[in-house]
Amino acid sequence: MVKDLLEASGHEVTTVPDGASALAALEVREPDLLILDFSMPGMTGLEVCRRVKSNPFTARIPVLMLTAEADVTRKVEGFEAGADDYLAKPFDARELRARVTALVRLVRREADRNPTSGFPGGRAIEDEITRRVHLGAPFAVSYFDIDHFKPFADTFGFAAADAVIRNTGLAIRDAVAAVGQPHAAPGHDMDFVGHIGGDDFIVVSGPEHAEAIAHESRRRFRELIGRQVGAPVLERGTFAGVDRDGRLREFPIASVSIAVLAVRPDRWVSIGHLGTAAADAKRRAKQSGGGIILVEAV
Questions:
Q1: Burial class (CB in 10 A: 0-12, 13-18, 19+), 210
Q2: What is the pTM assigned to this prediction?
Q3: Of 30-44, 65-79, 181-195, minimum mean pLDDT range
Q4: CB atoms within 10 A of CB 117
Q5: Which of 47, 157, 245, 254 has its CA 20 to 30 Å from the CA of residue 181?
Q6: b/e map of 119-152 (b: 16 or more CB within 10 Å)?
Q7: How far is the C-alpha of 66 from the C-alpha of 63, rounded, in Å?
Q8: Rounded to whole angstroms, how far apart are CA atoms 289 and 295?
Q9: For domain 123-297, which architecture applies?
Q10: Where in the chain is CATH 3.40.50.2300?
Q11: Mean pLDDT throughout 61-86?
């Protein structure tokens, strides 16, 4: 019914039978919108949503969750998994069409540049990676993620958090300029800095200086955090804040985890496959401890 309704509104619609098939389909072709049922065989809509949102190259795909249960708890679970909107069954066809139109319009409007940092995002990042693949020369994709950022934002305020996001982009850009470009051979592509969203950034560069960019970016990030928290806190390595239960505790200061992936175009699969590898590498880098640089080949 949903397929017929949306096709009648002019949308191209593809359906899959379960969550695993949905994730496989995303690696072949990225949609403008993903509609997930809360209850699906094998893998719930929540788990599919979490997997989609953990992949830096599919995270921007808007997710609309459908469910027969309208209680607040289920809605909160959906939003915590990363869902962008929620619709309880039974629903009015006009409301479904309106929500789909709004979500597609939103992602297209925000596709090319992140409003917080001003750096390229979304499709601009994908276009750069795709362009590099077509050139046929090896390149590196470095995935940057700020650790312990939520307690930092909760303690120091949203203004400080926004300043850190903006300055992180600038620090990475300056690190690229200081380390990457001077070592680029004549005629080689300029390195690219993008903002995936939130506290996630990406650099597409030559493989020969990707690690140096990562180390220099980490050094500059520590300096900018020090300007926000002060030298004593930076030296101590922790700050006092209130956790979700309202208890005062010490949190580690924000640091940055970096996963560097060396990409060989002759082994290229898809942007979704690269995103899955990047998300997995970042997860293991964070598990190893803040500030870790992990280098892998894909």
A1: buried
A2: 0.66
A3: 181-195
A4: 22
A5: 254
A6: bbbbbbbbebbeebbeeeebbbbbbbbbbbbebb
A7: 10
A8: 15
A9: 2-Layer Sandwich (3.30)
A10: 2-109
A11: 84
